[in-house]
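Help! Submission page says 'invalid entity' but I think these are all valid:
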Amino acid sequence: MTHKWWQGSVVYQIYPMSFQDSNNDGIGDLQGIISRLDYVKRLGADVIWLNPIYKSPNKDNGYDIADYRSINPQYGTMDDFDQLLEKAHKKGIKILMDLVVNHTSDQHEWFQKSKRSKNDPYSDYYIWRDPVNGHEPNNWRSAFSGSAWKYVKERGQYYLHLFAPGQPDLNWENPKVRQEVFSLMRFWLDKGVDGFRMDVINLISKPTGLPDVKGTATAGTTMDLVADGPKLNQYLTEMNEQVLSRYDVMTVGEMPGSTPKDAIKYTGLDSHELNMVFQFEHVGLSPNPDLRLGKWNDQPVKLVELKSALNRWQKALDGKGWNSLYWNNHDQPRAVSRFGSDDPKYRVLSAKMLATTLHFLQGTPYVYQGEEIAMTNAHFTDINQYEDLESLNIYQEMVKENKIVDAETMMKYIAHSSRDNARTPMPWDQSANGGFTKGSPWYRLNPNYQQINVQQALNDQDSVFYHYQKLIDLRHKNDLIKFGSFEEIDPDDQEVYAYRRHYQGQTLLVISNFTSKDISRSYPEEKTGKLIISNYRDDQGEKLRPYESKAYMIN
Ligand code: TEU
Ligand code: CA
Protein backbone atom coordinates (compact mmCIF):
# COMPACT_ATOMS: atom_id res chain seq x y z
CA MET A 1 0.00 0.00 0.00
CA THR A 2 1.22 3.52 -0.72
CA HIS A 3 1.64 5.70 2.34
CA LYS A 4 -1.04 8.30 2.95
CA TRP A 5 -0.46 11.76 4.43
CA TRP A 6 -2.62 11.04 7.45
CA GLN A 7 -0.41 8.09 8.40
CA GLY A 8 2.51 10.39 9.04
CA SER A 9 0.46 13.11 10.77
CA VAL A 10 -0.15 14.14 14.35
CA VAL A 11 -3.54 15.61 15.23
CA TYR A 12 -4.16 18.34 17.79
CA GLN A 13 -7.71 18.38 19.12
CA ILE A 14 -9.28 21.74 19.98
CA TYR A 15 -12.40 22.12 22.12
CA PRO A 16 -13.35 25.56 20.81
CA MET A 17 -15.47 26.60 23.79
CA SER A 18 -12.48 26.28 26.12
CA PHE A 19 -9.48 27.15 23.95
CA GLN A 20 -9.15 30.93 23.57
CA ASP A 21 -11.69 33.74 23.85
CA SER A 22 -11.02 36.71 21.57
CA ASN A 23 -13.92 39.08 22.35
CA ASN A 24 -14.16 38.64 26.11
CA ASP A 25 -17.63 37.15 26.28
CA GLY A 26 -16.10 34.26 28.24
CA ILE A 27 -16.45 31.71 25.43
CA GLY A 28 -13.63 30.48 23.24
CA ASP A 29 -14.08 31.28 19.53
CA LEU A 30 -12.68 31.00 16.00
CA GLN A 31 -10.65 34.21 16.15
CA GLY A 32 -9.18 32.88 19.38
CA ILE A 33 -8.10 29.73 17.58
CA ILE A 34 -6.61 31.80 14.74
CA SER A 35 -4.56 33.73 17.29
CA ARG A 36 -3.12 30.45 18.58
CA LEU A 37 -2.27 28.74 15.29
CA ASP A 38 1.41 29.51 15.78
CA TYR A 39 1.29 27.66 19.09
CA VAL A 40 -0.07 24.55 17.38
CA LYS A 41 2.54 24.95 14.65
CA ARG A 42 5.28 25.25 17.25
CA LEU A 43 4.17 21.97 18.81
CA GLY A 44 4.48 20.42 15.37
CA ALA A 45 0.95 19.11 14.83
CA ASP A 46 -0.14 18.63 11.20
CA VAL A 47 -3.90 18.56 11.65
CA ILE A 48 -6.40 20.29 13.94
CA TRP A 49 -9.60 18.46 14.83
CA LEU A 50 -12.27 20.95 15.87
CA ASN A 51 -15.08 19.79 18.14
CA PRO A 52 -18.47 20.94 16.70
CA ILE A 53 -18.76 24.64 15.91
CA TYR A 54 -22.15 24.55 14.18
CA LYS A 55 -25.32 26.29 15.27
CA SER A 56 -26.55 24.51 18.38
CA PRO A 57 -28.59 25.06 21.55
CA ASN A 58 -25.63 23.41 23.35
CA LYS A 59 -27.57 20.89 25.39
CA ASP A 60 -24.52 18.69 24.79
CA ASN A 61 -22.00 21.42 23.94
CA GLY A 62 -22.46 21.36 20.19
CA TYR A 63 -23.13 17.64 19.73
CA ASP A 64 -26.76 18.69 19.21
CA ILE A 65 -26.68 20.47 15.86
CA ALA A 66 -29.52 22.74 14.76
CA ASP A 67 -28.01 23.75 11.41
CA TYR A 68 -25.13 21.91 9.77
CA ARG A 69 -24.33 24.75 7.41
CA SER A 70 -23.93 27.62 9.83
CA ILE A 71 -21.47 28.58 12.51
CA ASN A 72 -22.67 28.98 16.07
CA PRO A 73 -22.63 32.79 16.59
CA GLN A 74 -20.82 32.30 19.92
CA TYR A 75 -17.83 31.11 17.87
CA GLY A 76 -18.03 33.79 15.16
CA THR A 77 -19.20 33.80 11.55
CA MET A 78 -18.65 31.78 8.39
CA ASP A 79 -16.17 34.52 7.45
CA ASP A 80 -14.17 33.74 10.57
CA PHE A 81 -14.25 30.08 9.66
CA ASP A 82 -13.02 30.75 6.11
CA GLN A 83 -10.22 32.83 7.59
CA LEU A 84 -9.27 30.05 9.98
CA LEU A 85 -9.17 27.52 7.16
CA GLU A 86 -7.08 29.77 4.96
CA LYS A 87 -4.62 30.74 7.67
CA ALA A 88 -4.24 27.17 8.88
CA HIS A 89 -3.60 25.96 5.34
CA LYS A 90 -1.00 28.68 4.81
CA LYS A 91 0.85 27.35 7.82
CA GLY A 92 0.57 23.79 6.54
CA ILE A 93 -2.04 22.76 9.09
CA LYS A 94 -5.10 20.80 7.97
CA ILE A 95 -8.55 21.10 9.51
CA LEU A 96 -10.72 18.14 10.48
CA MET A 97 -14.39 18.83 11.21
CA ASP A 98 -16.63 16.96 13.63
CA LEU A 99 -19.45 15.24 11.75
CA VAL A 100 -22.36 14.51 14.10
CA VAL A 101 -24.96 12.65 12.06
CA ASN A 102 -26.23 9.84 14.28
CA HIS A 103 -28.55 12.51 15.68
CA THR A 104 -29.43 16.19 15.32
CA SER A 105 -30.70 18.73 17.82
CA ASP A 106 -34.45 18.68 18.50
CA GLN A 107 -34.22 22.32 17.32
CA HIS A 108 -33.17 21.26 13.82
CA GLU A 109 -35.74 22.16 11.18
CA TRP A 110 -36.02 18.48 10.17
CA PHE A 111 -37.09 17.48 13.66
CA GLN A 112 -39.41 20.45 14.10
CA LYS A 113 -41.22 19.31 10.95
CA SER A 114 -40.97 15.61 11.74
CA LYS A 115 -42.67 15.91 15.11
CA ARG A 116 -45.66 17.81 13.71
CA SER A 117 -47.39 14.89 12.05
CA LYS A 118 -47.04 11.47 10.47
CA ASN A 119 -47.87 12.91 7.06
CA ASP A 120 -45.06 15.38 6.62
CA PRO A 121 -42.25 14.91 4.09
CA TYR A 122 -39.94 14.89 7.13
CA SER A 123 -41.98 12.43 9.18
CA ASP A 124 -39.56 9.55 8.55
CA TYR A 125 -36.37 11.51 9.16
CA TYR A 126 -36.26 10.20 12.73
CA ILE A 127 -37.06 6.92 14.48
CA TRP A 128 -40.69 7.05 15.62
CA ARG A 129 -42.59 4.16 17.21
CA ASP A 130 -46.06 3.68 18.67
CA PRO A 131 -46.35 3.11 22.41
CA VAL A 132 -46.41 -0.55 23.48
CA ASN A 133 -49.11 -1.08 26.15
CA GLY A 134 -48.93 2.61 26.94
CA HIS A 135 -45.16 2.43 27.46
CA GLU A 136 -41.87 3.02 25.67
CA PRO A 137 -41.36 0.74 22.63
CA ASN A 138 -38.39 -1.05 24.26
CA ASN A 139 -36.11 -0.98 27.31
CA TRP A 140 -33.21 0.96 25.80
CA ARG A 141 -31.44 3.47 28.06
CA SER A 142 -29.96 6.79 27.02
CA ALA A 143 -26.21 7.43 27.40
CA PHE A 144 -27.15 10.39 29.56
CA SER A 145 -29.56 8.60 31.98
CA GLY A 146 -33.21 7.65 31.67
CA SER A 147 -35.10 5.96 28.86
CA ALA A 148 -33.87 6.37 25.27
CA TRP A 149 -37.44 7.24 24.18
CA LYS A 150 -39.46 10.41 24.51
CA TYR A 151 -43.19 10.75 23.89
CA VAL A 152 -44.54 13.50 21.62
CA LYS A 153 -48.23 14.32 21.93
CA GLU A 154 -48.69 15.73 18.41
CA ARG A 155 -47.78 12.36 16.84
CA GLY A 156 -48.92 10.15 19.70
CA GLN A 157 -45.55 8.41 19.32
CA TYR A 158 -42.16 8.06 20.90
CA TYR A 159 -38.89 9.07 19.23
CA LEU A 160 -35.53 7.45 19.87
CA HIS A 161 -32.67 9.39 21.45
CA LEU A 162 -29.61 7.32 22.37
CA PHE A 163 -28.18 10.48 23.93
CA ALA A 164 -30.10 13.43 25.48
CA PRO A 165 -33.79 14.00 24.66
CA GLY A 166 -32.55 17.06 22.74
CA GLN A 167 -30.57 14.69 20.44
CA PRO A 168 -33.12 12.67 18.41
CA ASP A 169 -31.56 9.84 16.34
CA LEU A 170 -31.77 10.20 12.58
CA ASN A 171 -33.40 7.43 10.59
CA TRP A 172 -30.63 6.24 8.27
CA GLU A 173 -33.00 3.68 6.72
CA ASN A 174 -34.55 6.63 4.91
CA PRO A 175 -32.55 7.28 1.70
CA LYS A 176 -33.48 10.97 1.89
CA VAL A 177 -31.67 11.24 5.23
CA ARG A 178 -28.56 9.70 3.73
CA GLN A 179 -28.66 12.15 0.81
CA GLU A 180 -29.02 15.08 3.25
CA VAL A 181 -25.94 13.90 5.14
CA PHE A 182 -23.90 13.36 1.98
CA SER A 183 -24.87 16.78 0.76
CA LEU A 184 -23.82 18.57 3.95
CA MET A 185 -20.53 16.67 3.85
CA ARG A 186 -19.94 17.98 0.32
CA PHE A 187 -20.71 21.49 1.51
CA TRP A 188 -17.75 21.40 3.93
CA LEU A 189 -15.44 19.44 1.66
CA ASP A 190 -16.05 21.89 -1.18
CA LYS A 191 -14.99 24.65 1.19
CA GLY A 192 -11.69 22.84 1.51
CA VAL A 193 -11.80 21.12 4.90
CA ASP A 194 -9.47 18.15 5.12
CA GLY A 195 -11.72 15.50 6.57
CA PHE A 196 -14.07 14.43 9.33
CA ARG A 197 -14.08 12.89 12.74
CA MET A 198 -17.41 11.05 12.73
CA ASP A 199 -19.31 11.06 15.99
CA VAL A 200 -20.60 7.62 17.15
CA ILE A 201 -20.73 6.56 13.53
CA ASN A 202 -21.09 2.87 14.45
CA LEU A 203 -24.52 3.58 15.98
CA ILE A 204 -26.27 4.79 12.80
CA SER A 205 -27.70 1.42 11.74
CA LYS A 206 -30.11 0.19 14.41
CA PRO A 207 -30.69 -3.54 14.98
CA THR A 208 -33.64 -4.91 13.00
CA GLY A 209 -36.90 -4.77 14.95
CA LEU A 210 -35.32 -2.71 17.76
CA PRO A 211 -35.26 -5.66 20.20
CA ASP A 212 -35.02 -5.24 23.99
CA VAL A 213 -31.62 -5.39 25.66
CA LYS A 214 -31.40 -8.81 27.33
CA GLY A 215 -30.42 -8.79 30.99
CA THR A 216 -29.88 -5.43 32.69
CA ALA A 217 -30.60 -2.55 30.32
CA THR A 218 -28.08 0.21 30.96
CA ALA A 219 -26.54 2.94 28.84
CA GLY A 220 -23.60 0.61 28.22
CA THR A 221 -25.57 -2.52 27.31
CA THR A 222 -27.84 -0.46 25.05
CA MET A 223 -24.84 0.89 23.19
CA ASP A 224 -23.36 -2.61 22.84
CA LEU A 225 -26.62 -3.83 21.32
CA VAL A 226 -26.90 -0.94 18.87
CA ALA A 227 -23.22 -0.79 17.84
CA ASP A 228 -22.20 -2.18 14.45
CA GLY A 229 -25.74 -2.63 13.14
CA PRO A 230 -26.70 -4.68 10.08
CA LYS A 231 -26.45 -1.87 7.51
CA LEU A 232 -23.44 0.02 8.81
CA ASN A 233 -21.18 -1.38 6.11
CA GLN A 234 -23.68 -0.49 3.41
CA TYR A 235 -24.11 3.11 4.67
CA LEU A 236 -20.38 3.69 4.97
CA THR A 237 -19.71 2.21 1.55
CA GLU A 238 -22.35 4.48 0.03
CA MET A 239 -20.84 7.46 1.84
CA ASN A 240 -17.47 6.58 0.47
CA GLU A 241 -18.66 6.07 -3.10
CA GLN A 242 -20.80 9.19 -3.22
CA VAL A 243 -18.62 11.56 -1.21
CA LEU A 244 -15.32 10.62 0.39
CA SER A 245 -13.67 8.87 -2.54
CA ARG A 246 -13.94 12.12 -4.52
CA TYR A 247 -11.69 14.06 -2.14
CA ASP A 248 -8.23 13.49 -0.64
CA VAL A 249 -9.32 13.58 2.97
CA MET A 250 -8.82 11.91 6.30
CA THR A 251 -11.63 10.20 8.20
CA VAL A 252 -11.79 8.78 11.69
CA GLY A 253 -14.91 7.06 12.95
CA GLU A 254 -15.67 7.24 16.64
CA MET A 255 -16.79 3.69 17.48
CA PRO A 256 -17.61 2.90 21.10
CA GLY A 257 -17.75 -0.87 21.63
CA SER A 258 -15.97 -1.77 18.40
CA THR A 259 -13.43 -4.61 18.28
CA PRO A 260 -10.31 -4.92 16.10
CA LYS A 261 -12.34 -7.21 13.83
CA ASP A 262 -14.98 -4.50 13.31
CA ALA A 263 -12.28 -1.90 12.77
CA ILE A 264 -10.69 -3.97 10.02
CA LYS A 265 -14.10 -4.28 8.38
CA TYR A 266 -14.58 -0.49 8.28
CA THR A 267 -11.00 0.73 7.94
CA GLY A 268 -9.23 -2.19 6.31
CA LEU A 269 -6.54 -1.02 3.91
CA ASP A 270 -8.52 -2.41 1.03
CA SER A 271 -12.00 -1.59 2.26
CA HIS A 272 -13.13 1.79 1.07
CA GLU A 273 -14.97 3.14 4.05
CA LEU A 274 -13.02 5.02 6.76
CA ASN A 275 -9.31 5.52 7.39
CA MET A 276 -9.26 4.70 11.11
CA VAL A 277 -11.46 4.39 14.17
CA PHE A 278 -11.41 5.67 17.72
CA GLN A 279 -11.75 2.51 19.76
CA PHE A 280 -12.70 2.62 23.45
CA GLU A 281 -11.11 -0.47 25.00
CA HIS A 282 -8.28 1.21 26.85
CA VAL A 283 -10.42 4.10 28.09
CA GLY A 284 -13.18 1.74 29.21
CA LEU A 285 -11.02 -0.22 31.67
CA SER A 286 -11.85 -0.33 35.41
CA PRO A 287 -15.58 0.24 35.10
CA ASN A 288 -17.74 -0.01 38.21
CA PRO A 289 -18.57 -3.63 39.17
CA ASP A 290 -22.17 -2.42 39.56
CA LEU A 291 -23.42 -2.39 35.95
CA ARG A 292 -25.84 0.43 36.66
CA LEU A 293 -22.94 2.74 37.46
CA GLY A 294 -21.13 1.85 34.25
CA LYS A 295 -18.05 4.02 33.74
CA TRP A 296 -18.48 5.80 37.09
CA ASN A 297 -15.74 4.55 39.37
CA ASP A 298 -12.54 5.75 41.02
CA GLN A 299 -10.28 2.74 40.60
CA PRO A 300 -6.95 3.04 38.82
CA VAL A 301 -6.35 1.05 35.65
CA LYS A 302 -4.20 -2.10 35.92
CA LEU A 303 -1.17 -1.86 33.66
CA VAL A 304 -1.47 -5.45 32.46
CA GLU A 305 -5.02 -4.76 31.25
CA LEU A 306 -4.01 -1.49 29.65
CA LYS A 307 -1.19 -3.17 27.73
CA SER A 308 -3.41 -6.03 26.73
CA ALA A 309 -5.99 -3.64 25.25
CA LEU A 310 -3.50 -1.47 23.37
CA ASN A 311 -1.32 -4.38 22.23
CA ARG A 312 -4.31 -6.29 20.90
CA TRP A 313 -5.12 -3.37 18.60
CA GLN A 314 -1.48 -2.95 17.58
CA LYS A 315 -1.15 -6.60 16.60
CA ALA A 316 -4.53 -6.97 14.94
CA LEU A 317 -4.32 -3.91 12.70
CA ASP A 318 -0.68 -4.28 11.67
CA GLY A 319 -0.67 -4.43 7.88
CA LYS A 320 -4.48 -4.64 7.80
CA GLY A 321 -5.78 -1.33 9.10
CA TRP A 322 -4.64 1.80 10.87
CA ASN A 323 -4.85 2.77 14.55
CA SER A 324 -5.66 6.10 16.08
CA LEU A 325 -3.68 6.65 19.27
CA TYR A 326 -5.09 8.66 22.16
CA TRP A 327 -4.98 8.84 25.95
CA ASN A 328 -7.78 11.36 26.35
CA ASN A 329 -10.16 13.76 24.64
CA HIS A 330 -13.11 16.00 25.52
CA ASP A 331 -15.04 12.96 26.87
CA GLN A 332 -12.31 11.56 29.06
CA PRO A 333 -10.55 12.54 32.27
CA ARG A 334 -7.04 13.97 31.91
CA ALA A 335 -4.43 11.39 30.89
CA VAL A 336 -1.83 12.23 33.51
CA SER A 337 -4.39 11.92 36.33
CA ARG A 338 -5.79 8.67 35.02
CA PHE A 339 -2.80 6.71 33.71
CA GLY A 340 0.17 8.53 35.31
CA SER A 341 0.32 10.61 38.47
CA ASP A 342 -0.79 14.20 39.01
CA ASP A 343 1.15 14.45 42.27
CA PRO A 344 3.40 17.51 41.65
CA LYS A 345 6.40 15.30 42.33
CA TYR A 346 5.63 13.03 39.36
CA ARG A 347 3.33 15.00 37.08
CA VAL A 348 5.93 16.06 34.51
CA LEU A 349 7.81 12.76 34.57
CA SER A 350 4.71 10.63 34.19
CA ALA A 351 3.18 12.86 31.49
CA LYS A 352 6.35 12.51 29.41
CA MET A 353 6.34 8.78 30.07
CA LEU A 354 2.77 8.49 28.78
CA ALA A 355 3.58 10.60 25.74
CA THR A 356 6.56 8.46 24.75
CA THR A 357 4.63 5.24 25.29
CA LEU A 358 1.76 6.35 23.04
CA HIS A 359 3.62 8.23 20.32
CA PHE A 360 5.91 5.33 19.44
CA LEU A 361 3.00 2.95 18.80
CA GLN A 362 1.81 2.37 15.23
CA GLY A 363 -0.99 4.75 14.22
CA THR A 364 -1.93 8.42 14.10
CA PRO A 365 -1.47 10.14 17.49
CA TYR A 366 -4.04 12.63 18.80
CA VAL A 367 -3.04 15.28 21.35
CA TYR A 368 -5.96 16.82 23.24
CA GLN A 369 -5.57 20.50 24.12
CA GLY A 370 -3.74 20.87 27.43
CA GLU A 371 -2.31 17.34 27.33
CA GLU A 372 0.92 18.84 25.97
CA ILE A 373 1.34 20.85 29.19
CA ALA A 374 0.14 17.92 31.36
CA MET A 375 -3.06 19.52 32.58
CA THR A 376 -4.61 17.48 35.38
CA ASN A 377 -8.10 16.56 36.49
CA ALA A 378 -9.82 19.45 38.26
CA HIS A 379 -10.48 17.60 41.55
CA PHE A 380 -13.77 19.40 42.11
CA THR A 381 -15.70 18.16 45.14
CA ASP A 382 -19.12 19.79 44.79
CA ILE A 383 -21.72 18.84 42.17
CA ASN A 384 -22.29 22.58 41.59
CA GLN A 385 -18.79 22.81 40.17
CA TYR A 386 -19.82 20.58 37.28
CA GLU A 387 -21.47 21.63 34.06
CA ASP A 388 -21.78 18.59 31.78
CA LEU A 389 -25.24 17.01 31.52
CA GLU A 390 -23.75 13.52 31.78
CA SER A 391 -22.30 14.22 35.25
CA LEU A 392 -25.31 16.19 36.46
CA ASN A 393 -27.78 13.53 35.32
CA ILE A 394 -25.87 10.57 36.75
CA TYR A 395 -25.67 12.32 40.13
CA GLN A 396 -29.40 12.99 40.07
CA GLU A 397 -30.19 9.40 39.03
CA MET A 398 -27.79 7.49 41.29
CA VAL A 399 -27.83 9.66 44.41
CA LYS A 400 -31.13 11.54 44.48
CA GLU A 401 -33.61 9.26 42.72
CA ASN A 402 -32.39 5.68 43.07
CA LYS A 403 -30.11 6.05 46.11
CA ILE A 404 -27.67 3.51 44.68
CA VAL A 405 -24.63 5.29 46.14
CA ASP A 406 -24.16 8.01 48.74
CA ALA A 407 -23.33 11.54 47.65
CA GLU A 408 -19.74 11.43 48.87
CA THR A 409 -18.86 8.25 46.97
CA MET A 410 -20.55 9.52 43.82
CA MET A 411 -18.59 12.78 44.02
CA LYS A 412 -15.39 10.71 44.09
CA TYR A 413 -16.51 8.82 41.00
CA ILE A 414 -17.42 12.05 39.22
CA ALA A 415 -14.13 13.72 40.15
CA HIS A 416 -12.33 10.72 38.69
CA SER A 417 -14.39 10.19 35.52
CA SER A 418 -16.27 13.36 34.55
CA ARG A 419 -15.87 14.80 31.07
CA ASP A 420 -15.65 18.23 32.70
CA ASN A 421 -12.06 17.38 33.70
CA ALA A 422 -11.20 17.90 30.05
CA ARG A 423 -13.32 20.99 29.53
CA THR A 424 -11.84 23.55 31.92
CA PRO A 425 -10.52 26.50 29.88
CA MET A 426 -7.01 26.37 28.49
CA PRO A 427 -4.58 28.18 30.85
CA TRP A 428 -2.26 30.29 28.70
CA ASP A 429 -0.48 32.21 31.46
CA GLN A 430 -0.69 33.23 35.11
CA SER A 431 -2.93 36.25 34.61
CA ALA A 432 -6.59 36.31 35.67
CA ASN A 433 -8.49 33.38 34.09
CA GLY A 434 -5.20 32.10 32.74
CA GLY A 435 -5.38 34.52 29.81
CA PHE A 436 -8.27 32.48 28.42
CA THR A 437 -10.63 35.46 28.65
CA LYS A 438 -10.75 38.96 30.07
CA GLY A 439 -14.45 38.44 30.70
CA SER A 440 -16.12 35.89 32.90
CA PRO A 441 -15.29 32.35 31.66
CA TRP A 442 -18.22 30.08 30.72
CA TYR A 443 -16.64 27.40 32.92
CA ARG A 444 -14.26 27.65 35.84
CA LEU A 445 -10.54 27.11 35.28
CA ASN A 446 -8.62 24.28 36.85
CA PRO A 447 -7.57 25.74 40.25
CA ASN A 448 -3.92 24.87 39.49
CA TYR A 449 -3.63 27.16 36.46
CA GLN A 450 -1.07 29.41 38.19
CA GLN A 451 1.36 26.47 38.18
CA ILE A 452 0.25 24.68 35.03
CA ASN A 453 -0.05 26.93 31.99
CA VAL A 454 1.36 27.39 28.51
CA GLN A 455 3.67 30.28 29.35
CA GLN A 456 5.32 28.28 32.13
CA ALA A 457 5.75 25.32 29.76
CA LEU A 458 7.25 27.41 26.96
CA ASN A 459 9.73 29.03 29.36
CA ASP A 460 11.02 25.73 30.67
CA GLN A 461 13.27 23.76 28.32
CA ASP A 462 12.47 20.60 30.31
CA SER A 463 8.72 20.97 30.02
CA VAL A 464 6.24 18.40 28.83
CA PHE A 465 5.54 20.67 25.83
CA TYR A 466 9.07 20.29 24.46
CA HIS A 467 8.93 16.57 25.06
CA TYR A 468 5.85 16.36 22.82
CA GLN A 469 7.55 18.62 20.29
CA LYS A 470 10.49 16.24 20.19
CA LEU A 471 8.28 13.14 19.84
CA ILE A 472 6.37 14.72 16.96
CA ASP A 473 9.59 15.73 15.26
CA LEU A 474 11.02 12.22 15.62
CA ARG A 475 7.89 10.75 14.06
CA HIS A 476 8.03 13.15 11.13
CA LYS A 477 11.65 12.26 10.40
CA ASN A 478 11.51 8.55 10.95
CA ASP A 479 9.72 5.94 8.86
CA LEU A 480 10.20 3.27 11.50
CA ILE A 481 8.11 5.29 13.97
CA LYS A 482 5.46 5.81 11.34
CA PHE A 483 5.29 2.42 9.73
CA GLY A 484 7.27 -0.11 11.77
CA SER A 485 5.59 -3.33 12.87
CA PHE A 486 4.83 -3.92 16.54
CA GLU A 487 6.24 -6.59 18.86
CA GLU A 488 5.03 -6.86 22.45
CA ILE A 489 7.39 -7.58 25.37
CA ASP A 490 6.43 -9.23 28.68
CA PRO A 491 2.65 -8.68 28.61
CA ASP A 492 2.46 -9.91 32.24
CA ASP A 493 4.92 -7.34 33.60
CA GLN A 494 2.79 -5.31 36.04
CA GLU A 495 5.20 -2.40 36.25
CA VAL A 496 6.75 -1.81 32.85
CA TYR A 497 5.23 -1.22 29.43
CA ALA A 498 7.90 -2.24 26.91
CA TYR A 499 7.64 -3.01 23.22
CA ARG A 500 9.63 -3.13 20.02
CA ARG A 501 8.99 -1.73 16.56
CA HIS A 502 10.70 -3.11 13.46
CA TYR A 503 11.21 -1.63 10.02
CA GLN A 504 13.68 -2.44 7.25
CA GLY A 505 16.25 -4.01 9.56
CA GLN A 506 15.99 -1.32 12.24
CA THR A 507 14.51 -1.83 15.71
CA LEU A 508 13.09 0.65 18.20
CA LEU A 509 12.93 -0.44 21.84
CA VAL A 510 10.56 1.51 24.10
CA ILE A 511 10.66 1.04 27.90
CA SER A 512 8.31 2.80 30.35
CA ASN A 513 8.15 2.40 34.12
CA PHE A 514 4.51 2.98 35.06
CA THR A 515 5.26 3.03 38.82
CA SER A 516 6.66 5.59 41.27
CA LYS A 517 9.32 3.12 42.43
CA ASP A 518 12.90 2.33 41.44
CA ILE A 519 12.90 -1.00 39.67
CA SER A 520 15.26 -2.97 37.49
CA ARG A 521 14.79 -4.57 34.06
CA SER A 522 17.11 -5.64 31.31
CA TYR A 523 16.50 -5.89 27.59
CA PRO A 524 19.24 -7.26 25.32
CA GLU A 525 19.34 -4.47 22.71
CA GLU A 526 19.61 -1.72 25.29
CA LYS A 527 23.41 -1.98 25.32
CA THR A 528 23.90 -1.61 21.59
CA GLY A 529 21.14 0.89 20.86
CA LYS A 530 21.27 4.65 20.65
CA LEU A 531 19.10 6.47 23.20
CA ILE A 532 16.77 8.76 21.22
CA ILE A 533 14.57 10.15 23.98
CA SER A 534 14.25 9.94 27.75
CA ASN A 535 12.54 11.83 30.57
CA TYR A 536 15.68 11.74 32.77
CA ARG A 537 18.97 13.54 32.16
CA ASP A 538 21.15 10.46 32.30
CA ASP A 539 20.73 6.78 31.48
CA GLN A 540 21.29 4.27 34.28
CA GLY A 541 20.86 1.18 32.13
CA GLU A 542 18.91 -1.54 33.88
CA LYS A 543 17.83 0.70 36.73
CA LEU A 544 14.49 2.36 36.02
CA ARG A 545 13.62 5.35 38.19
CA PRO A 546 10.01 6.48 38.96
CA TYR A 547 8.08 6.85 35.69
CA GLU A 548 11.30 6.62 33.72
CA SER A 549 10.68 6.17 30.03
CA LYS A 550 13.24 5.84 27.25
CA ALA A 551 13.64 4.59 23.72
CA TYR A 552 16.62 3.13 21.86
CA MET A 553 17.16 2.88 18.13
CA ILE A 554 19.09 -0.22 17.10
CA ASN A 555 20.53 -0.50 13.59
O1 TEU B 1 -19.33 10.45 22.40
C1 TEU B 1 -19.87 9.19 22.34
C2 TEU B 1 -19.60 8.24 23.43
O2 TEU B 1 -19.83 7.07 23.22
C3 TEU B 1 -19.14 8.56 24.78
O3 TEU B 1 -17.86 8.98 24.89
C4 TEU B 1 -20.18 9.35 25.52
O4 TEU B 1 -20.32 10.64 25.04
C5 TEU B 1 -19.95 9.50 26.97
O5 TEU B 1 -18.77 10.17 27.20
C6 TEU B 1 -20.03 8.21 27.67
O6 TEU B 1 -19.60 8.35 28.97
C7 TEU B 1 -19.64 11.34 21.37
C8 TEU B 1 -19.03 12.70 21.66
O7 TEU B 1 -17.64 12.61 21.68
C9 TEU B 1 -19.61 13.22 22.94
O8 TEU B 1 -19.02 14.43 23.35
C10 TEU B 1 -21.10 13.39 22.72
O9 TEU B 1 -21.71 13.76 23.92
C11 TEU B 1 -21.75 12.13 22.20
O10 TEU B 1 -21.02 11.49 21.16
C12 TEU B 1 -23.11 12.44 21.61
O11 TEU B 1 -22.98 13.15 20.44
CA1 CA C 1 -15.73 34.67 22.57
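Support: the input was valid. A stray whitespace character was the problem, and the output above is from the cleaned input. The radius of gyration is 23 Å.
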